[in-house]
Amino acid sequence: MRNKFDPSEIPPAPDLSFERNLWSNNVQFVAGIDEAGRGAWAGPVYAAAVILPEDPTIESKLTGVRDSKQISAIKRTQLALVVRQFALAWAVAYADASEIDELGILPANRLAMMRAVKALRTQPEHLLIDALFLPDMELGQTSLIKGDQRSLSIAAASILAKTERDAWMISAHERYPAYRFDLHKGYGTKTHQLGLSREGICDLHRKTYKPIFDLINKKA
Which residue in 20, 150, 151, 179 could disulfide with 195, CB within 3.0 to 4.6 Å? Predict the structure, then answer.
């Protein structure tokens, strides 16, 4: 059952309140899960899963870790290294544009999350997920609205998902320079729209997304 959410519950920085509650109930391995790229017009949707150790110093070690959207790209890259260093386990996975078109973004998002969980070297006993449930996974789960602002595990996952996806989109720019994926990472900016108007779509575009769908029909 989804927790009721009061915006006043958002702490100044994500903390371990949810994790500690589970640890105190003998749930040792708690994975925070978040995604990146859900609203983009092109490229995969990424997900990351992070298990933090039951370590009284972990919050100080991860100082500055928060919702990836609130951090600069340079800072995200720095913090991603810190998360990988101090996490008990972490994994990143994705669902590509063709899977998004075939399944829909929400099922594809869940698929990427499940792939990340299954790739963890230590399998979790409970999942803390930003605003979603994974009904196909037989694990205890807590869906948290604004989870990346409330749970340190989810915030750490948001940073890994975002940095890995950004790196993938930057590499995609080398194959498709006309779209400038290195600048907008596949989101619907004016630069991206200009590339689409000049070149049409490529195989990285999500053909079921309305702007791309409309462009395909207009060309047809």
Answer: 179
75-133 pLDDT per residue, tens: 999 999 999 999 999 999 999 999 999 999 999 999 999 999 999 999 999 999 999 99
Give the amino acid at 84: R
**Is residue 47 within 8 Å of residue 134, measured between CB atoms?**
no
Q: What angle do CA 44, 1, 93 make, to 5 degrees?
A: 20
pLDDT digits (tens, 9 = 90+) for 185-220: 999 999 999 999 999 999 999 999 999 999 988 865
What CATH architecture applies to the domain 10-170?
Answer: 2-Layer Sandwich (3.30)
What pLDDT score does 86 carry?
98
Amino acid at 216: I
Number of H helices, E strands in the chain: 10, 5
Torsional class of 64: left (φ above 0), alpha (ψ -120 to 50), beta (otherwise): left
* Cα 49 → chain centroid: 9
The residue among 158, 192, 169, 200 whose CA lies nearest residue 97 is 169
Q: What are phi and psi of 28, to 5 degrees?
A: -80, -45
